[in-house]
Amino acid sequence: MIFCKQMILDCLYISLQITEDVSFIRAIKVKEMRDLGVNDKTIAHSLTIFDKTMDNWKDMCVRKILTCYPMIARGQLKFDDWDSAMKYLQENR
Fold first, then answer.
1. What is the pLDDT of residues 9-31, one digit of tens each?
2. Does an H or E element contain 77, and which?
3. Which 3-state string (H, E, C) describes 7-72?
4. Is the distance from CB of 8 to CB of 70 less than 8 angstroms?
5. Tell me: the pLDDT tens digits for 44-80?
6. If DSSP codes are grouped into helix, strand and coil, which group holds residue 91?
7. DSSP 81
8. d(Cα 50, Cα 52) in Å, to the nearest integer?
9. Backbone φ, ψ for residue 47 (5° rounding)
10. Shortest CA distance to 19 belongs to which of 64, 56, 68?
């Protein structure tokens, strides 16, 4: 079970690192769009889609982790969404 818990923490940490990289890419995207003269409405629309896609990805990551965790020990995981998963990661690092 210790091995499984560590694997979950590693998966959560990797997922967190990916979201941080994507956040950086989002900032670059906004800068490039502004530099190209894209209007604010189009930028806002693009960012809404970008953010929704990231939220869906985060939800999918947590669902996959929960689904793959051994059923017998699933009660040990104290998260069920992205925010609680990140809190769990912080508390168990």
1. 999 999 999 999 999 999 999 99
2. none
3. HHHHHHHHHHHHHHHHHHHHHHHHHHHHHCCCCHHHHHHHHHHHHHHHHHHHHHHHHHHHHHCCHH
4. no
5. 999 999 999 999 999 999 999 888 887 777 778 889 9
6. helix
7. S
8. 6
9. -70, -35
10. 56
